[in-house]
């Protein structure tokens, strides 16, 4: 039933990102319906859940029926399905083109190149022989990745020596077409989360510093400490170019490598992102709220940071809640997922008025986390 006072947002995917979208939208009077293959989807806590496959047309029609906007919290959503919904008159935001590009590492890198954004050297790989040629061209160390379907470091392998080429191929080849990239000896990893409104306005949150463990994001520092103004401007310019080229509406994240005096683009995510979770408590408007404002055609809120923050992911294991909550400035998020190794089951965001206070709070948090925060 259409209800102009309480718009219905259909979200394809029902994981923790969907859950946090719901948590941000409910205060604004939004209603949510999620599509997820599992009954135990974390987003079920904040809206109606349709259990079904994201490639199932009947399920897509059921979840979007009567929706004021359709969006997604997972970039693996088949673009065909998103196009079908668009053809049937739905406001699908961001548009399926953002899915096409972000689902294919080769298309992503070609887009960066076309826009004049620096990228690591790369070459498409079709078969074993072309991998050998690509290694000749790009050299070692290099990283062999599946073009599609990789996440949290899955579907990729580093090639350090020539005699590892065949082994690397065997390791990832069954994941479909591949891409070889030069291994970047980066200074650190950065990302920039930005949002583009329906009227084209773009706003960026602070550029942040990310640390990964075994390919999985472990911590995000916001804003990135001691960030060079030139690097910051390059990052903001790059994400703006991508948003505009795609005509993207909603949040988009650009992952970057900081190198001496500049940046290289790694990948984009056409959605709210783990490196933007700190914005819930650490920014005037969170990535989740601004994503919803954008997809509904509403005005954006300020992305300004409030103080400094660090976000720590809980991977495979959750801390004792009371111990965490004793730490000043600590905000605990649990996703309602069954703990399993390498699975993101929650996060803690620490906020502080300044660097010194953040350091002392982080020491306190470290002592109560069940594993080494690094
Ligand atoms: N070309 C590269 N050079 C150096 N490190 C890389 C490179 N590609 C990936 N990595 C490391 O692996 C992590 C995951 O790779 P990424 O391409 O972002 O895939 P995904 O996040 O989809 O699993 C990166 O955040 C980075 O730490
Ligand atoms: Mg990544």
Task: Provide the descriptors you would attach to this structure in a database record.
globular, 17 strands, four-stranded parallel β-sheet, 12 helices, alpha+beta, 374 residues, binds magnesium ion, nine-stranded antiparallel β-sheet, binds adenosine-5'-diphosphate
Structure in words:
With 374 residues, the protein is α+β, with helices and mostly antiparallel strands. It is 30% helix and 27% strand. The protein has helices at 16-25, 57-64, 79-87, 96-102, 105-114, 128-138, 165-172, 229-246, 279-282, 287-295, 321-325, 355-366; strands at 8-12, 31-36, 48-51, 69-72, 122-125, 142-146, 156-159, 178-182, 188-196, 202-204, 208-213, 216-222, 250-259, 262-269, 308-315, 330-334, 344-352. The strands form 3 sheets. Strands 9, 10, 11, 12, 13, 14, 15, 16 and 17 form a 9-stranded antiparallel β-sheet that branches. Strands 3-2-1-4 form a 4-stranded parallel β-sheet, with helices on both faces. It has a 4-stranded antiparallel β-sheet with strand order 5-8-6-7, sandwiched between helices. A hairpin with a 5-residue loop joins strand 9 and strand 10. Helix 1 packs across helix 10 (287-295) and helix 3 runs antiparallel to helix 4 (96-102). The protein binds adenosine-5'-diphosphate and magnesium ion. Magnesium ion (MG) binds at residues 255, 267.
């Amino acid at each position: 039933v259409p209800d102009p006072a309480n718009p219905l947002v259909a979200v394809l995917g029902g994981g923790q990102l969907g859950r946090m979208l719901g948590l941000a939208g409910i205060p604004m009077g939004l209603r949510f319906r999620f599509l997820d293959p599992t009954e135990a989807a974390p987003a079920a806590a904040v809206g109606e859940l349709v259990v079904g496959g994201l490639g199932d047309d009947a399920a897509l029609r059921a979840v979007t029926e009567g929706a004021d906007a359709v969006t997604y919290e997972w970039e693996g959503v088949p673009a065909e399905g998103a196009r079908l919904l668009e053809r049937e008159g739905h406001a699908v935001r961001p548009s399926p083109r953002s899915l096409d590009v972000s689902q294919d590492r080769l298309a992503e890198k070609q887009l960066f190149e076309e826009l004049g954004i620096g990228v690591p050297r790369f070459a498409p790989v079709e078969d074993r022989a072309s991998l050998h040629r690509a290694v000749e061209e790009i050299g070692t160390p290099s990283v062999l990745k599946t073009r599609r379907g990789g996440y949290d470091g899955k579907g990729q392998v580093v090639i350090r020596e020539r005699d590892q080429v065949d082994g690397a191929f065997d390791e990832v080849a069954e994941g479909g077409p591949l891409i070889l990239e030069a291994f970047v000896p980066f200074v650190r990893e950065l990302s920039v989360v930005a949002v583009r409104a329906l009227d084209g306005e773009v706003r960026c949150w602070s550029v942040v510093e990310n640390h990964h463990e075994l390919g999985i994001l472990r911590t995000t520092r916001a804003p990135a400490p001691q960030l060079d103004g030139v690097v910051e401007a390059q990052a903001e310019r790059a994400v703006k170019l991508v948003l505009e080229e795609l005509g993207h509406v909603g949040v988009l994240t650009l992952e970057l490598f900081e190198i001496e005096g500049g940046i290289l683009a790694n990948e984009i995510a056409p959605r709210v992102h783990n490196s933007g979770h700190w914005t819930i408590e650490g920014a005037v408007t969170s990535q989740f709220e601004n994503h919803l404002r954008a997809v509904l055609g509403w005005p954006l809120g300020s992305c300004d940071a409030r103080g400094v923050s660090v976000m720590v992911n809980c991977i495979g294991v959750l801390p004792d809640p009371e111990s965490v909550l004793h730490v000043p400035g600590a905000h605990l998020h649990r996703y309602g997922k069954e703990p399993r190794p390498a699975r993101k089951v929650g996060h803690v965001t620490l906020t502080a008025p300044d660097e010194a206070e953040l350091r002392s709070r982080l020491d306190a948090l470290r002592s109560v986390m069940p594993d080494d925060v690094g």
